[in-house]
Amino acid sequence: MTGFDPRSPIDLHTHSNVSDGTQSPAAVVRSAAEAGLGTIALTDHDTWEGWDAAGAAAKSRGLSFIPGVEFSTQVDGASVHVLGYLVDRQHEELGTTMRNVRESRLTRAERMVEAIGMDFPISWSEVLAESEDGATIGRPHIADALVRRGIVADRNEAFAGILHWQGGYYQPHHAPHPVAAIRLIKEAGGVSVLAHPGSRGRGGLRDGVFERLVEAGLDGVEIYHRENDEFNRVLLHDLAREWDLIVTGSSDYHGLGKPNRLGENTTEPEQLQRIIDRGSGTAPQFAERSISPPQ
Ligand code: AMP
Ligand code: FE
Ligand code: FE
Ligand code: ZN
pTM higher than 0.90 for the full model? Predict the structure, then answer.
């Protein structure tokens, strides 16, 4: 029988060290199996490089695997994240756009480290040493270098101070408007879900921006996420009903890089089925399942 197991928990938002998580893609999947999940998506920032390793691990562990990315976008300087599931890796424009974002992230991090290095003893090579070759670089890797130097205790302390967007060293990077990202995801046969819309920085989503995203083809919203408070969840449920959007819930697991636990929020099977029905760029990978014959 094919399809994901609707009785086991579904977590559709995780990160590996191909971006700013702390575990390899295979290790993320192993942890997901240990956490009792039945279906997992890998959604590294601006890259799909972890898919093959995660997919192979999922196969051997008996999990279903949903390939995804978390696309960095921007509205008036505010960061907005768009999850793209089941996109086609052959789609050139999507690949090029994500590569440009990754390159801009790299030069932006280098500029930030140069400024931080005026006040604290850290260098660019130390930041690079905290990341895998080719990984999507972000502030978490700078945080790890600060931790190794003993300047801060953990990533969280780094984000609360030195790396905070008002911390004095923050630099933006280039990223497309979410309307462009949603269109690209759609063109690439994917399904777009607005990630943690209640997170700080959501300022960019006021003033009719949400409606513009829906008109551009936004498929869903990630409502069950620790960064959406109750107030935002109620608002988002209203919007989801109004626009008939897919509703997801996920952990946004980053390994040891964040307190988020695998499966702390999950997605209903009916909602995952809607994603699968709509996606055509890359097929989901279902675990082998047998059903016991009727007695
Ligand atoms: P950047 O994309 O380089 O601006 O950095 C933002 C990334 O840092 C997000 O993807 C988060 O996963 C991560 N992040 C944000 N706040 C924290 C925090 N307090 N602790 C650990 N990671 C964080
Ligand atoms: Fe992240
Ligand atoms: Fe995000
Ligand atoms: Zn994320």
Answer: yes
Query: With a 6 A CB cut-off, is 140 part of the ligand 1 pocket?
Result: yes
b vs e for 151-170, b when ≥16 Cβ sit within 10 Å of the residue's Cβ?
bbebbeebbeebbebeeebe
User: Is the beta carbon of 138 within 6 A of some atom in ligand 1?
Assistant: yes
**Quick check: CB of 257 below 6 Å from ligand 1?**
yes
CA–CA dist 65, 191 (Å, integer): 15
Would you state the structure tokens that stand for residue 13, as one six-digit string?
């938002």
Pairing of strands 39-45, 246-249: unpaired
**CA atoms 51, 54, 59, 60: torsion sign:** positive
Cα of 133 from ligand 2 centre, angstroms = 17
Give the Å distance between the CA of 44 and the centre of ligand 3.
9
**How do residues 41-51 score in pLDDT, each as one tens digit?**
999 999 999 99
For 97-131, what is the HEC assignment?
A: HHHHHHHHHHHHHHHHHHHHHHHCCCCHHHHHHCC
Residue whose pair of structure tokens reads 């060290």 in the numeric block: 17
Distance, C-alpha 242 to centroid of its chain = 25
Per-residue pLDDT averaged across 248-260, rounded?
98
3-state secondary structure of 232: helix
Per-residue pLDDT averaged across 110-125, rounded?
A: 98
4 touches 267 (CB < 8 A): no
- Determine the distance separating the centroid of ligand 1 and the alpha carbon of 290, expressed in angstroms: 40
Instruction: Tell me the pLDDT tens digit for each residue of 212-250.
Output: 999 999 999 999 999 999 999 999 999 999 999 999 999
